[in-house]
Amino acid sequence: MKIIGIVKKDKKTKNLIHRLNNGDIALVQHKDIDEIAALSLIEANVKCVINTEKSISGKYPNLGPLHLINNGIPIFQTSKEIFNTIKDNSKIKIIKNSLFMDGKFIAKCELLDRNKINRLLKIASNNLENELDNFIENTLAYAKKEKDLVLGNIKIPKIKTNIKNKHVLIVIRGKDYKKDLITIQNYINEIKPVLIGVDGGGDTLLEFGYIPDIVIGDMDSISDKCLKIANEIVVHAYPDGRSPGYERVSKLGLNSIVFNSPGTSEDIALLLAYCNDADLIVAVGSHSNMIDFLEKGRKGMASTFLVRLKVGSKLIDAKGVNKLYKSNLKLKYLFSIWAAALIPIFITLVTASPMKDIIRLINIKLKLLLGI
Q1: Fewer CB within 10 Å of terminal CB in the chain, N or C?
Q2: Rounded distance between C-alpha atoms, residue 222 and residue 197, angstroms
Q3: For residue 11, what are the domain limits?
Q4: Is the domain of 214 the same as that of 249?
């Protein structure tokens, strides 16, 4: 195998995505490549991925690498030191298991083929029970620290967007988020819910032709364009008040509201909608199963469980909306519309002079045949 291309690198894959061009080589430091990262790299149409961390560590069965090779994108494993050795935007070459930069050999690399990936996924699946035990213990420990999320001791900032008694659609860059958004477009266009984008979810709304009413998050994966277009910005800050996202928004000369809270930006978006009396909260791309939580890679996902306990009565996943929500246009209505459209055509034909003559001739022939 021989691959030649321009390399782009970043320690955070979600930041790298915005800099990649068609045919680039992506150099990442991404332990356990998750599905969202893999799908983003596929959309960027990278030539290949070089990872200086273990793409599958065996911690849990992450399917990112399998998605990449299924879409014809090779994955190479190499040593951690190489990340600093390779220069961003330099031209590199991969020949068999060797990496070259500027014509000079710099390191060995290993191609992760399908057999290796399947073997590693099998090991990871066998380890899943142990990982789940650790996850539960860790979650319970964090739940004690973050119980204020449920008890109502978190101060909810006042927003200008009116949410009361309305449907709220929250878009998160999670598994199948674009596919789910496509399935509920009829719902969005007819019901017109309040649109909230969580970080990069705001850009997804723009991509689908919708302007976010609110964007919320730590602002590390949302574009300047989306921040400038969104009607309202809510910056997620740490409980101690630190807020890197606020600095970014301020540098753009934009106004924002700060929401100090533990947990994830996804969690506080749900809280914001719930505490402002939303009638129904529809989540696109939210984390809803064990692998989703493990892929999130947080030490404590307790806040996610706690928030769902609080907002559960109003929360529905977008995957269910497409089944629950049906357009009012039923078959009998379609038949009525079709029949109504034919009436003026029939009247026009009957009243037209040529048609009158034809009907008169047919009438005469029938009388002759019947002997009337």
Answers
A1: C
A2: 9
A3: 2-123
A4: yes
